[in-house]
From TrEMBL:
Name under which the protein is recorded: Nicotinate-nucleotide--dimethylbenzimidazole phosphoribosyltransferase
Source organism, top-level taxon: Bacteria
CDD domains the UniProt entry points to: DMB-PRT_CobT
Protein family membership: Belongs to the CobT family.
Length: 346
């Protein structure tokens, strides 16, 4: 697993400075385009280009099952995970629609379904047949964690084969908000009740039960939760580990990342705790309606592009935010300067 600790180069500071200087010369009051100006400058630094662009987008949705589903923490049966994988493969999910709209290259990866699916357009890269129930023991073995992280690294290799300029990671796995809530609570040292939300649509009393399951697991595993990797191995899911591995690998390769919602942001938090240099390569698509997401974003010092009360996952919120980054680039590249337009500066 040594690759996850390899150094990550920072985005180019000189390109960032030049982009900021250009923003001061465009026909608008300084700062009037808000976050879009910062996005353009950051992308210029990441791409080492005076004229940044986001045209080639790669979306990988990682799917896996969770043993913690046995505790009745989801409103949907575990069979929905594989059923949704088939839906992704057929192009019928929300993220498929959005991927087509933005012209993204889309793939779905079986990172650890209980039962593999025999579909030619599902990539089988399995860390196991679902995680173990972390209410009773660690979610995965060390070798499974190592494999799951590498699943994400291989997805980045495929993205680069398609000359991607932006990576979006999505996830699917019944009960994965339980895993993500446990991970966030452990990383942020917060009570489970402050992080745990409705997930797939639980009622208040069901949310309380879900939080109690997480709290009991955190208590039973407290001696193990001393490093980010130990936390991920003990409480995580294969698809969450794959996302974390993808985020680290993308940053190592200089590929910007657009992070999706709560589960993806928890993976980003773990990635940043494992290899802090990767955080400089993250954009955040949205703040979801899931209870713990704002706390995770705060820990990441993140400013999401959208707030749409979404909580679907799949990479859908990030895909929806892609046009914001594209428009930031177009504004940066195509607006006239005061000198070009013959407009007087203040």
């Amino acid at each position: 697993m040594n690759w996850i600790f390899e150094p990550i180069a920072a985005p180019a500071a000189d390109y960032y400075l030049k982009a900021q200087q250009r923003q001061q010369q465009l026909t608008k009051p300084p700062g009037s385009l808000g976050v879009l100006e910062e996005c353009a400058a950051r992308l210029a630094a990441m791409q080492r280009r005076a004229a940044p662009g986001i045209e080639r987008i790669h979306i990988s949705v990682f799917a896996a099952d969770h043993g913690i589903a046995e505790e009745g923490v989801s409103a949907f049966p575990q069979a929905v995970t594989v059923e949704m994988v088939k839906n992704f493969a057929a192009g019928g999910a929300a993220v498929n629609v959005l991927a087509r709209h933005i012209g993204a290259h889309f793939e779905v990866v079986d990172a650890g379904l209980r039962q593999p699916v025999a579909l030619p357009n599902v990539i089988a890269d399995r860390a196991g047949a679902g995680t173990a129930n972390f209410a009773h023991g660690p979610a995965m073995a060390a070798a499974q964690l190592e494999f799951a992280l590498a699943v994400g690294r291989r997805a980045i290799a495929r993205a680069l084969d398609h000359a991607a300029q932006l990576f979006v990671g999505g996830e699917m796995g019944i009960a994965n908000t339980t895993s993500a809530s446990a991970l966030a609570a452990a990383c942020l040292q917060l009570p489970a009740s402050e992080i745990t939300g409705a997930g797939t649509g639980l009622l208040p009393e069901q949310i309380d039960r879900k939080a109690a399951v997480i709290a009991a697991a955190l208590q039973s595993h407290r001696s193990r939760l001393d490093t980010p990797l130990a936390i991920l191995q003990t409480l995580g899911g294969f698809e969450i580990a794959a996302l974390a591995g993808a985020y680290i690998a993308a940053a190592q390769q200089g590929l910007p990342v657009l992070v999706d919602g709560f589960i993806s942001s928890v993976a980003a938090l773990l990635a940043a705790r494992i290899n802090p240099g990767c955080a400089a390569w993250f954009f955040f698509g949205h703040c979801s309606a899931e209870k713990g997401h704002s706390r995770v974003l705060q820990a990441l010092n993140a400013r999401p592009l959208l707030t749409m009360d979404m909580r679907l996952g799949e990479g859908s919120g990030a895909a929806l935010a892609v046009p914001m980054l594209q428009m930031a680039c177009r504004l940066h590249n195509e607006m006239a300067t005061f000198a070009e337009a013959g407009v007087s500066q203040g």
